[in-house]
Amino acid sequence: MSPATATTEEKQTPHDLTGVSNPSSITGKLSTWIHDTTISSIPDDVVRRAKYLILDGIACGLVAAHLPWSEVAARAIFDMEPEGQCTIIGWGGSKKLSPLAASILNSTFIQGFELDDYHSTAPLHSCSILLPALFAAAEAETSRVFSGQDYLKAFIVGCEVGPRVGLALHGADLLSRGWHSGAVQGPSASAAAVASLLDLSPGYIESALGIACTQAGGLMSAQFGSMAKRMQHGFASRNGLFAALLAKEGYTGIQEVYETPYGGFLSMFSEGVTNFSPKSLPDELISGLGEKWELHGIRVKLHAAMAALHGTIDCIEKLQREHAQLFAAENLRNIEAITTQHSKPAFEHGGWTAPANKPLSSTAAQMSIQYAAAAQLVDHEVLMAQFGADRLNRTLLRELMAKITPTHNPELDSDRRKGWRTVVAVRFVGGETVVAQVEGPKGIIPPATDEDIVNKWRMLVRTCLTRRGGIRSRSVC
After folding, report:
1. Where exactly are the transmembrane stretches of this chain (predicted)?
2. In this model, does residue 407 exceed pLDDT 50?
C-alpha cells in the first residue's frame, strides 16, 4: 500500500493519540482516570495495603519457582526464547528473558501453587497479573529510572481496573459460564498498570486497553489437571504488557472497546448470560473511581487451594474443634456421608466429582471440594504438603472423597457477600449428624491482617531463602 492510499489509522502519528476518542464514554473516562491518578491522590491505607499485597505476591513466586510444573515451564521458555534483560523470580541472575517471556513465566510462578491473592467479588489473581508485567516494564525501559512510588501507583491502578472489568460482567458469573475469569479480566489490569507506570497519555491508554481486550480469554476446564491452569494469568500479564508497549509506540487499538455493541468486550463476554438483566453493567468500570477502592476487596489466601474451597476447609476445621472425639483419626472410617452446600460459582468451580479410578494431579486436587474436605479430615490442615505427589491418592483420603457430595444451594446466590457462605453436614454410621456453617472463610470474612500476611511470608520463604537472602537449592523450593 502506498502512502497515498494509506488509511486514516495508518497515517496517525503518536501525537494523534494524546486524547481519548470520546471523553464522555466509559472507556474514555477510565483511560483518563488511569492517566490522572497520582500516588498523592491515593489514600494512605490503600498504599499501605498495596505494599503487603506485593509482599505476599513475591513470596508466592519464590515458593513456586522450582515446583515440578514451574520447572517444566521454565525449561520450555528458556529453550524457545533468547536471553533478555528481565529478571526471573527465584532463579537469581542466572537466567534473564525478554519482557514478554519474563512476564508470563514470573506470573506462572506466582500462580504456581494457588497461594496467591484473589478478589472476593470479581475473581482474579491481581499479583500474578500485575507484578510480572510491572517488573518487566521497568527493566525494559532502560532509559528511565522508576521510583518505588511509581511502581506502587501503577500496581494500585491495576488493582482497581481488573476487578471493575469483572464487576461489569456480574462478578463470578464468568466462572459459572466456564471462563477463567482472571484470564479474561487480566489483560485490562496489566495494560492499565503498565500504561500508568510509563505515564502514557489518555489516548495511548485507550489504545492499550483496546489491544489488551482483544487478547482476553481463558478456559476453566484447565483446572482439571493441566499445567496450563498455572499459566493462564501469565497470558493475561503478558498480553496487557504487550498492549501497553505497542500503544506506547503509537500502535492503535480498538476505541471504546468496553461498550462498543458489535464485537466490543462487554457485549461479547456477556454472551451466554442468563441469570442477569442487563447482561453487562458498563458503569461498574467507572463507578466510584478514586473513592471506592477495589484493592480492599483483594483477599490473601491462608490455605493452599482455590478460594472456593476455603469455606469447606474452615467448616471441617470447626467441626474438628467442636467434636474432637467424633473426628478423631480412628473414627474417620465411621463417616457415612458428607454433604456440602455452596453458591453456584463455588459449586461449578470446585464441586466436580473426582473419578474414582483416575489418580489426582496437584492441579485437580487444588480445585476439588472433595479433596479439600478429605485432606482437612485426615491431616487437619490444607497447606503445600497436602498436594505433594505422595499425598494425593492415599487410600483413606480417596475413600473419604467418595463419600463427599458437593451441592449447589440457590439461596446462597442472592448476593455477592452471601456467596461465600458454606454449609457442611457430616453423617456417621448410626445416624448421628453434625453440621457447621461459615459466612466466609478465613481471609475473606474478616480479611487477612497485615500481620497474617507477614506470618505467611515467613512461613513460605523459610524453605526457599537463606538467611542472607539467597535462593536455596532447587530441590528445596
Report:
1. none
2. yes
